[in-house]
Amino acid sequence: MQATAPVAAVLRAILGELQALDGASDAPDPASAAPAGELLTVREASRRLGVAPKWLYRHPRLPFLRRLSPGVVRVDAAALALWVARRA
Fold first, then answer.
1. N or C: which end of the chain has fewer CB within 10 A?
2. What is the spatial distance between Cα 53 and Cα 36, in angstroms, rounded to a whole number?
């Protein structure tokens, strides 16, 4: 299930409020790094992460991977940016 644009806007607003409570209101919103709903290929995502594409296929439970059909995997750009920001 994918979020629609209004839901994404609400989630961004909630994240902004949580950042303000956490004292990180000056930090950039990681979800704004990519347009809502943008899906990357595994190759594009692996370049952003600096890993081999095979690494992404070997870790199918990563929260930003979207299995569209058997053998077809895409990466949610906003979820990837959020995951990277949380690990930094």
1. N
2. 23
